[in-house]
Amino acid sequence: MQDNLLGSLVDALRCLPGVGPKSAQRMALHLLERDREGGRNLSRVMAEAMERIGRCTRCRDLTERELCSICSDTRRDDGLLCIVESPVDVLAIEQATAFRGRYFVLLGRLSPLDGIGPEELGLDMLEERLDTEPPQELIVATNPTVEGEATAYYLHKMAEARGISVSRIAHGVPLGGELEYIDQTTLAHAFGSRQSFTPGR
Amino acid sequence: MQDNLLGSLVDALRCLPGVGPKSAQRMALHLLERDREGGRNLSRVMAEAMERIGRCTRCRDLTERELCSICSDTRRDDGLLCIVESPVDVLAIEQATAFRGRYFVLLGRLSPLDGIGPEELGLDMLEERLDTEPPQELIVATNPTVEGEATAYYLHKMAEARGISVSRIAHGVPLGGELEYIDQTTLAHAFGSRQSFTPGR
Ligand SMILES: [Zn+2]
Ligand SMILES: [Zn+2]
């Protein structure tokens, strides 16, 4: 297969996450047999996206403009600043919640052993922002991993030093989740973070 | 999202079969954050494939050349001609079996109600081939659907009229399949097509 164009297309499709040889094959044949226009369009948009999409100069999220659509939206609340690790997290929060504040995207988490320090995460940029336009509340939405926790701790110190209040999104047993199927770390965390129960609240 | 380039990329990725909104998002972010070179390469190969891949003039399989790699391979056996519905079937047979004969790809199956008759399936082309270079054996590998069966019947008549022997790939319970999980039609077919049991064969 690899000495022909169909084989090259199947190979090239494997750069997509979660696409193995079988699905790459199915995708290539689907486009060739039923949707060449879709394939042409995808090729055009992808080339343009790879060249033109960069980072928002204010929040570091992905955008093809100087400022992303959230940063340039004047109706959003400057008093709330949510810190996330990656652009997927922005999308997830935008889709699931009614949050109307601002974001700052770290593009990673503190990991000194991998050479990822505060500068790599743009924390100097964030620090300047907290100094010049301090929000009322910093919402830390890093992931509950060891590095994510270290990052959260660092952010907490940064905000505390400036008298900005800090909150952390809640971690625990997912709604609809059953205890017996939850991983031990989550369950231990949920147990340790238990709150007083107020019936009817 | 749809008023920006990232949103357009997510939308464009949905032309791929089996890719919903969530996985399109994951794919777009993966390429942008971790594999722009892969994305650029995919875009280039896809554009070229959509423009240049056409049909083999001999077997109707997908190829960017006049003759596909199988038709132009002089080491393959002209005596065996396998008829399949689609290019995926060629790939499946090539990958799973040691078949070294030739193929003819119908690109569909007889379906008069949908306006798919013998010409749409290239059966005139196949007929000419059976007349001028008759194989010893015609292997019918159409799918076991109503239309696939009708097509198989038509092919059988065509070959029979020319004294060419015809075989059909076997249908039944898949190896490793368990009877209780097999769909009823397959099981009924497998039961009806039972063969005499020769122990030790
Ligand atoms: Zn921004
Ligand atoms: Zn061919």
UniProtKB/TrEMBL annotation, chains A, B:
GO terms for biological process: DNA recombination; DNA repair. A zinc finger (C4-type) spans 56-71. SMART domains: TOPRIM. GO terms for molecular function: DNA binding; zinc ion binding. Residues 79-174 form the Toprim domain. May play a role in DNA repair. It seems to be involved in an RecBC-independent recombinational process of DNA repair. It may act with RecF and RecO. This is Recombination protein RecR. It comes from Marinihelvus fidelis.
